[in-house]
Specification:
Largest sheet: 7 strands, mixed
Strand order of the largest sheet: 1-2-5-9-8-7-6
Number of helices: 5
Distance between the termini: 50 Å
Bound molecules: biotinyl-5-AMP
Number of strands: 14
Helix content: 10-25%
Length: 232
């Protein structure tokens, strides 16, 4: 496999570690079970209480379109979980869900190095936590099946699924559409600070969300934050 994993005991953020070590070889993976200041999107944080796995992959020349990296990483995570008997779905654009709750989050960051852009694919997976007192919308693999998950084999399985997924974006997109958490649901989308409501029609070939607005327009959304609308 092209990816080589270095485990570190504790780190603020595995994404930040790679950002500050861009000279590490292409496809270097930094992994930890103790991430103390994990980063989410838009300045949010990622909690990694004991039992969590955090890792980041350095992609100097990604084999897939960079804008697809979050979705394709979600596909690879979902496949890894499915092979182990879980029933995951992928919540556009960057989460993996189990039983309607968030089990993993993905943060892809670009880093300019002269004329080139390097990509850092950061993934947090809730493996063995047995409760999330301050995160009611979170779950872990342990909570789903009451079985502990060994982090090292899980990461190895993920990396081979990720390698395959990146090399075959069209069948990965088909998988994504079959595991689309939002499809058919009424959602609110935070789109450039504006909340738009509508029904998610699914994900198109560009990885964009198709939203059917109440006036019948179909909007193509490239990024944003989706939450489910409660139905009475
Ligand atoms: C994400 O952001 O979901 C991306 C998270 C990426 C984390 C990885 S860990 C390895 C690498 N190194 C880093 O520093 N980061 C990456 P976002 O979509 O913005 O979601 C963040 C929100 O998810 C938070 O505001 C919480 O509401 C929720 N959250 C935080 N920790 C969680 C957890 N462990 N499980 C489920 N939800 C969580």
């Amino acid at each position: 496999m092209a990816y080589s994993v270095r485990w570190i005991d504790s780190v603020d953020s595995t994404n930040l570690y790679l950002k500050t070590h861009p000279d590490l070889p292409d496809k270097q993976v930094i992994a930890t079970l103790d991430q103390t200041a994990g980063r989410g999107r838009l300045g949010r944080g990622w909690d990694c209480p004991k039992g969590g796995l955090a890792f980041s992959i350095l992609e100097k020349d990604p084999p897939a379109k960079p804008s697809f990296l979050p979705l394709l990483s979600g596909v690879a995570l979902s496949k890894t979980m499915e092979k182990r008997g879980y029933l995951p779905s992928i919540k556009w654009p960057n989460d993996v869900y189990l039983s309607g709750k968030k089990a993993a989050g993905i943060l892809v960051e670009g880093l300019s190095e002269g004329p080139k852009t390097l990509y850092i694919v950061g993934i947090g997976v809730n493996l063995n936590q047995d409760a999330f007192p301050s995160l009611p919308g979170a779950t872990s693999l342990f909570l789903e099946k009451k079985e502990a998950v060994e982090p090292e084999p899980f990461l190895e399985e993920f990396l081979s699924a990720y390698e395959e997924t990146l090399l075959d974006p069209s069948s990965s997109l088909a998988y994504l559409r079959e595991h689309d958490f939002l499809k058919g649901k009424r959602i609110t989308l935070n789109y450039y600070g504006e909340g738009i409501q509508g029904k998610s029609l699914g994900i198109d070939e560009d990885g964009e969300l198709l939203l059917l607005a109440p006036n019948g327009d179909v909007k193509k959304i490239s990024s944003g934050e989706a939450s489910l609308l409660r139905t009475k």
